[in-house]
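Inputs:
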Amino acid sequence: MSAITTAILKVIRQSQKPISKADLVRMTNYSLATVNEHTECLIRSNLVAEVERGPSTGGRKPILLSFNAELGYVIAIDLESTHARVGIADFNCNIVISESSRDIDVSLGPSAVLEKIKAIVFRLMEKHDIKRNQIKGIGMGVPGPVRYNSGITTSLAIMPGWENYQVRQFWIQHFDCPCFVDNNVNTMALAEQIINVNTDHPNIIYVKIGNGIGASIICNGQLYRGSTEYAGGIGHINIGHDQLCYCGNRGCLEAKAGGRAIAIRAEQMARSGQSELLKRMLDSKGKLTLSDVRKAVIESDAVAVELMRECGIIIGDVLAGLVNFFNPSLVYVGGAVSGVGDVLLASIRQSIYQHSLPLATRSLTIQHMSLGENAGIIGAAFLAVEETIFGNGLMDTKASLRSYNG
Amino acid sequence: MSAITTAILKVIRQSQKPISKADLVRMTNYSLATVNEHTECLIRSNLVAEVERGPSTGGRKPILLSFNAELGYVIAIDLESTHARVGIADFNCNIVISESSRDIDVSLGPSAVLEKIKAIVFRLMEKHDIKRNQIKGIGMGVPGPVRYNSGITTSLAIMPGWENYQVRQFWIQHFDCPCFVDNNVNTMALAEQIINVNTDHPNIIYVKIGNGIGASIICNGQLYRGSTEYAGGIGHINIGHDQLCYCGNRGCLEAKAGGRAIAIRAEQMARSGQSELLKRMLDSKGKLTLSDVRKAVIESDAVAVELMRECGIIIGDVLAGLVNFFNPSLVYVGGAVSGVGDVLLASIRQSIYQHSLPLATRSLTIQHMSLGENAGIIGAAFLAVEETIFGNGLMDTKASLRSYNG
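Outputs:
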C-alpha cells in the first residue's frame, strides 16, 4: 500500500464515525483528486465501505466512508517451546474463539507441529462457522529467530529441525491469504503495545524471560527488527562465565539465568541438600522444572528465593548496559520466569539502578507486562491485521484500534 | 515547521534544478492550494527563492522555485576535552573558514571556555567579512551529555563546572539566531552520515573512543537520542572490574579501556619496567599521555601493542552485546584511541564476531570512521543547518545535501 493510501486509511480507521471525502481533504491536505483515487482503491480492496450519505451542504449529500472491520477474520498462533495457543480474531484484534494445546513441542519438528496447529485451526473455524475464504490473514509467533520478510525460521538449537523452514509457505498452501511469522517476543510486545497504548513512551524494551531470554524493541513508536531481523537477541550476550550454551558459545546470559538454567541449578541445589523442599520435589518427580522452582519461591524456600534473586541481578546487569545504550523510558519484564513474583523484578530493578547512570534512568519505569496467557495470540492477530491492511512491515503501534475491546 | 512545509522544502532542496509548483503538486500529491500556501511561507522565511520563469505550457510562464543556499552562514563548534575547533559554514555545510585551538580545556569551566570560543568566532567572521546578521544558526558539540532540547550541559565529572550550564543561552545572548548543542559523539556521527550517505545502512552504531567512550545511534536513518536524550552512554556500562570510575561507580567500560585509563596503565607498565620504551618516555616527560602510547604502538612496542589489543577485546565484548541487541549493519569506530591503528580495530572485530551470534553479524561491517579532524565541525554545521531549516529534531540523515562539496 502506498504512503498516501496508508495515510488516508489511517484517518478513516481512527475516525470515531463515518467520514466524508471533503473531511479527508481537510485532514490530510491531499487534493480531492488524490483522495478520490486512493479511496476508490480502498473501496475496491474492501478495506473501506461507503456506509451512508451525510448531511448536504448545498449540493447533493456526500457519501460517507468507514473502515470495514467486518471484512473477515485472521488466524493468530502463539507457538511456545512446549505448547501452543491458537485463536481466530476479527479486524479489531478481538479474539472470537481460541484453544490452547499442551500436546505440542517444538522439538517434534516443524511438520508435526504445524499439522497439529492446522488441525486446531480447522476445528476452531468449524466451531465458529468460519469459511476458508473469510480468513484474510495469518499471524504466528515462534519461540526463536525468524527471517521476518520471508517467514522462514532460522537456526537455533532450541528448535531442532526448524532451520530454514518455510513456515509462511506451509500456511499459504492451505489458505489464500498473506501470512506473517515473527518471534514470539515481538508478538508479545505488540500485544502489550496495543493494549497499553504507550503513546507517551515511544522507546521501550520488552524482556521475555522463559526458557530462553529475548527482547523486543519499540523505537519511536514502531517495532524495531534490526538490520538482519535479529534485534533483541539478548539471551546470548556474553556475561563472562564458563557455562556452555546450546548456541555453542560459553558465557551467554540465558545459559546462566534462563528458565532451563534455573531448573538445572535448582536440581543441583536439591541434590546437594541445600534445600529440603527442592530435594523432596526432585525425589518425587525425578527432575525439576521452572514450575517447581516457582512453587518453591511461593513457599518462601530461601534457596529458591536466593536463586531467583541472583538471576535477577544477572539479568538486571545486562539490562543496565542496554539502558545506558538505548535510554528507554519503559522496561517491561514478562515470560514464565517473571511469573515467580516480585523477587525477580525487585532484583532486576536494583541491578539496573545500580549500574546505569542516573541520567539514563531519570524517568525510567521498570515493570511487569500486564497481559496473561492470551498476549501471544493478541499480538499475532495484530501482526496479521496490520500487515494485511498496510503491508509495510512498520508495525506502527501508535495507530490504535478503534474498536478493540480487550 | 509543519510536516507539509518540511515535505515540500525537502523536494525543493533535493531537486537538481529549479522546480515549478505544478511539479511540486505532482511530486508531493498535495493540492495546489496547499503547495501555494506552504511555498509562500517558505519564500517569506527566505528559505526558498523565486528564481526564474520556466517554459510556458500554454498560459503564462510558471515561476520556478529553488532552495536558497545563500541565505547566510552557520557557526560550527567542536569542543573536545582539551581543545576546540571552530568554523563557519554555508547552508550546504561547506566549511568556509575554520580555526583550531589547543589553548582550551573544558576543566577551565564554561564561562572561560565559551569566551575563548566566542573570540575565535568573531575573529573568523572579521577575516571572512561576515556580519552578525548573516549568522542564521549555531551548532555545537561538547564532550559530555547535553539535554538536547534545552541546550543545557548535564553532570559528568569529566566537565567540572558545566553541570546545568545553559550553553544555548550563552550563544543566544550574542547572536540573534537558533543554537543547538549536542554531545560530540553525535556531531561526529552526523558528519560521517552526510559524507558517506549511508542510505543502504539505516541502522548504525558509531563508537568514539577518546578519553571517554561514547556511542551514537542511527536508527531507521535518523539520529536516535533516547528518552532522556542520553542514548549511547556506553562508557559507563559495567564490565565487572574493581576500578573506580569518575562517575562514582566501579566497573565502567571507560575506566578500563578509555584513553585516560590507557595512559594510566601505560605509566604503571613503564614504572614496573615492562616496557623500556614507555619507561624512557615517562622518565623524560614525567607522565604519559594517549599520544605517547600511540607512538609506542607505531614503534611496535610489544607492551603497548598488547595493551591496545586488550582494550580492543574489552570494548569489542561490550559492542558484541550491543550488536546482539540492536543488530546494526555497520559499526564505525573513531576517536583519538582508534587512531593507534589497526591493532585496536582488529581486536574489536575479533571480540564482536566471537561473542555475537552469526545471525546478528551476518552482514555486519566494522570499520574506522572516514573523517579527520574536521568531522566535529562538519557535524555541528549539519546540526545547525538542519535544525535552523526544519526545527523538528529528527536529523533525517537521508536528506542529502544537494551541493555539499566535502
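Remarks. Chain A touches chain B through 57 residues (CB under 8 Å). The longest strand of chain A covers residues 135-142.
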